[in-house]
Amino acid sequence: MPPAALTGITVVDAATLFAGPLAATILGDYGADVIKIEHPAKGDPSRGHGPSRDGVPLWWTMLGRNKHTVTLDLGRAEGAELAKRLLSDADVLIENFRPGTLERWGLGPDVLHELNPRLVIARVTAFGQSGPYAHRPGFGTLAEAMSGFAAITGQPDGPPTLPPFGLADGVSALVCAQAVLTALYHRDHGGDGRGQVVDLAIIEPMLTVLGMQAMAYDQLGLVQPRTGNRSVNNAPRNTYATRDGRWVAVSTSAQAVAERVMHLVGHPEVIAEPWFASGAGRAAHADLLDAHVAAWIADRDLAEVTEAFDQAQAAVAPIYDIADIFADPQYAALDSITTVEDPALGPVRMPNVLYRMSQTPGRIGWTGRPRGADNDAVYRDRLGLDPAELAALRESGVI
Predict the structure, then answer these.
(1) Is 169 in the active site?
(2) With bands split at pLDDT 50, 70 and 90, how would you rate the model's confidence at 138?
(3) Range 348-357 contact pairs with CB under 8 angstroms and sequence separation of 24 or more
């Protein structure tokens, strides 16, 4: 295998559910040496999250990939001391404890940076390290609610709608990984060689990906309403049912694409209307445009619809579930769902690494390992503990 981009970077993952651990997974996919800390008795919550097969938790099988797993009670004095030894030559710590928890355990940034000035400490919480809500427990669901996402999601006459998966955590994981890499770059290129603290509040990445809502409210007093599958910025943009009971999504963010769609569905006359010349004007006439597009699609099967749109160079996509994704040739060509060998499950299919790199590709070396599987290798080989010390730590419940 060619060298991995993050070879030589050691990441200690002390986070849970899901933004922090997923950020560590991403870093591990590209070569970082990730040490996952779990509580000796409780383990990582993802081991009990979602479905399992033959007692093997599927969430953990993916989330724990490329990680060395150790058990450690950070809240015990002996555990905190072991953590300091682990972090003394690490590059990154990712944690998501409630603000003040690390400090209470004697593991605050001031202590850790005195021990290891090069350490990058990524702190991932719902509301950040300061402010009136910092002390509150929080999950991605709260960020989806408070960021404005749920308020604009759903049908106009329906309730605010939360996503049926960890959207805020997933977005924040991507941001956390990027923030860690930014901090490492600063440390090693042009900085003073010192690590820094990354304070990531999950409410903020969600606020950012919602776009210019803040500016629209600031400058115009606009509050975006729920519009279902329509867009306030362009039309036609919706989901449409085909004759054979399938669904497709159509997008016309570009003016040229909107014109091609209306030619395709047999209503080129609307293109000459003055309002058609802008996305906002088309959005204001969404009822008319949707009626034309929906009627044309409803008279045709999915294959005919996608072929016609492709020939017209107009933007359409079938609405997929995971079974459709497994069968799709484009995903197959990209190896987006790849096969990995798991010791308990055998061959398993899971999302591949996030992106392809020509010189330093990422890889999945192994799936999530049993709790504490690497205790001996990490504590004995890295920290130099002898068998008697390890036995004593196990007996006392520290590891």
Answers:
(1) yes
(2) confident
(3) 348/61, 350/61, 350/62, 350/65, 351/62, 353/29, 353/30, 354/26, 354/29, 357/5, 357/30
Domains, the chain, ranges and CATH? 10-209+333-396 (3.40.50.10540), 247-318 (no CATH)
- Of 29, 44, 91, 169, the active-site residue reads 169
Q: Which two tokens stand for residue 373?
A: 């599987």
CA distance 171 to 165: 11
Q: Name the β-bridge partners of 53.
A: 56
CA 4 to each of CA 25, 63, 297: distance values in angstroms, whole numbers, following the listed order: 14, 19, 47
User: Does residue 328 contact residue 320 with C-beta atoms inside 8 Å?
Assistant: yes
Quick: pLDDT tens for 362-388.
999 999 999 999 999 999 999 999 999
Half-sphere exposure of 204 (CA within 13 A, CB side): 11
Amino acid at 27: L
Closest listed residue to residue 280, CA positions, set 221, 218, 237: 237
